[in-house]
Fold each of these.
Amino acid sequence: MTDIKHPLTRRHLLQQSLALAGAAMLPPGGWADAVPAVRTRVIPSSGEAMPIVGLGTWITFNVGNDTTLLNESAAVMAAFFEAGGRMIDSSPMYGSSQNTLGFGLNKLGESTPVFSADKVWTSNANNGASQIETSEQRWGVPRFDLLQVHNLVNWESHLRLLRQMKAAGEVRYIGITTSESRRHAEFENVMHGQPLDFIQVSYNILNRDSEDRILPLAMDKGIAVIANRPFQQKQLIHQLEGKPLPAWAQEFDATSWAQFLLKYVISHPAITCTIPATTRVDHVRENMACAAGPLPDAKQRERMAAYVRDL
Amino acid sequence: MDAWFSYRLSDFILFSERVYWRLFDQINALVGAFLPAVIALGCLLLVGVWSRYRAVQIATAVLLAAFWISNACLFLWIYYAPVNWAARYAVPFFLLEAGLILLVGTNPQLNRPLARRDARGSVGFAMLVYAVIVHPFTSLMFGRPLGSAEFVGLAPDATALATLGYALMVASNKALWLLLPIPVAALAFSGLTLYTLGTPEAWVIPVALLVTLTTLFSTKPPADATTATPVTRP
């Protein structure tokens, strides 16, 4: 017999403290009022506008149970949303990244403008549905905005499942991904033969393999494109560190190598969104600033690629 | 199957160097005030391997086996598996190694004679000293805080290095092949991980493995306990 209607449990306390902490991170008036104007590209299959810079989680959000790093990841997400970002991409392959996203979204509150993009990655066709359900639970979302077949693993079965889910309203968009240029021929075949909303490929200033066929085909067929590894997993940044940024980079407001590299990727007309991954709030702000400034034109793009290639 | 062959090693290392070292930060913080006791237990290995007393020899084996169990439960299962799903598959092997250490440590037929001051014994003891006393300070040498130090009993590399030393000192020629495969494999995987992460101390593990294997194959095999004159053990 007790008067307490809501027993005070450790879980309850944790949820309340997370909600309070999240409220402290929420801009006054909520995310919608705080979002600055950023460049968007349209998702061809729906006409929905998508901020051109998103957030990847490969490696960076795989932090396990480390509460310090979980909170740092949540701060990165908060800075991303504050700067007008929406698309966050993850995969069941990325260790604890999905749990980290769930922690961050829970901390930041329900009103985040997140566009949730995840993947199905299992060689067993029968495990696809349960894997997606687990992923949704980890994120803490009722349904994903976008589901992709990761690296074409068992793509025939999984795409069939994703099409059924889309028809049933259980996911808004579907797509396929690859991070390997040598699989582009198979990738192209799937793009030709299957109805897709999105594709995801690796694309950066030194990895331009998708420029010849994949990106033009995506434009031709009206498929949105997510560009991953815009910094080639930090390698490009390390490679260019200490080297002079050309003075003409000011023509399109690139003030750092990161912005230079990112502006190269997002200035390709086929790219709908790129998803740089980072663990740092200042880097996410720097990345998002690219989405607000001017972009190089085709001639400048060629000059950029040649400059980096010759360094 | 083709899809699996298309992956590179770096595709499976889905965490950063910082996350990896913070695993040890967390474990050391969890142990907290008991950390000096864990270090002291590690130091007991240095004494136990020289003992002529059967009870001490068994206690030394039990201690080392307990360290492998602690690594399996604490490091692999609780901390490492959330960032590296493959870690769970290593748990049975860590537990098996604990069992093998107990088997060798408690069975005189699988022990070397107690004259352990030969080349193999000396290298083995040096390896033990390195694992227990020197290896934790490699964190400082490479600019990491002492909080992320790897201690025998809490960190698999330090424990595996100590086991190489223990095996060289204690195990008979036949028993070496029982005790060495798992720590050698664990260190090889760990070395590849550190190399892929780009951590500067990745070279420590291949050097330790090279020293162990060179010692193993270049020293004259001493007579096993099974063939030598039995030593009277109290």
Note: Chain A touches chain B through 24 residues (CB under 8 Å).
Amino acid sequence: MDEVKVIEIKKSVFADNQQDADALRKELKTKGVFLLNLMSSPGSGKTTTLIRTLNLLKDKVRVAVMEADIDSDVDAVKIRRATGIPSIQLHTGGMCHLDAEMTRQGLDNLSLEETDLVILENVGNLVCPAEFDTGAVANAMILSVPEGDDKPLKYPLMFSVCDLVLINKTDVLPYFDFNPDKCREYIRMRNPKARVIPICARTGEGVEAFADWLLEQIHLWKH
Amino acid sequence: MHELGIVFYIIRDVKKAAEENGVEKVSAVVMNIGEVSTVIPDYLGDCWRWAADKEPLLKGCQLKILPVPAVSYCGDCGKEFGTVAHGKTCPHCGSVNTWLLRGNEVEIKEIEVPAD
């Protein structure tokens, strides 16, 4: 048998990303830019929710949007057309999530000096994005009613990293066995600190509460 | 699901370690993979083979995976239990005031290089 030499490393694969993320957050603090990482599964209504929210926010704060997808630019174009807000598309090149370095590269394409809030729409996925700190100041996720109230039990990590959970598509509650109280209880089990806001992006119900939450967070971050 | 992304991170870290140690060939990378890390060892191995063989430093390099069993601790009764069997609820007292002690690792333990 060939002899081998062992070099001990003992390092988490996520360590470098964690460092990059912390450095990015520090820089955002200096520049007074609030970065929100918005996550969810595909089809939960992220883009529709964003359009509603951006239209409420755009006269109050300077906003920019980064859309992350494996491919295509449909979301960035849709956001720009519907809100007039600067919106860029990031491609992850087949990866199922964004990391802090990719987020930084995206931010380099925005005029941060003229921006108060950047919303990063992460790749639609409840598993991988939760693993990688993007350097965002806060994490939010959207859970839509058709997905089921048991998702906090099935994707514990996602719910434990979120500061805010939006429960979307409340207009279809009568047609699904989705128990909002149970869902809140499951979220609390994973993360007692997470704020929960029920919304309906289609009708606009509850979206104002989300916009107010964002304004409050931006204010706290800047002061 | 995100095994390929993790493989890219492993490759980046191993290349860095090889450079720091003046190593030109790595024969094996040993990983500690926690039972609830969401990394599936089989997928990780498949992605590893595909990506590692594209790197001269890592061509044919083996990925050895050491599983780390997941263990949780109960803040109410102070006992430990297997996370996979019992989830969030303590089997000793029924409390959900529990947290993970270990089993979340995605860690490069060591690399093996051919001896001179």
Note: Chain A has one domain: 15-222.
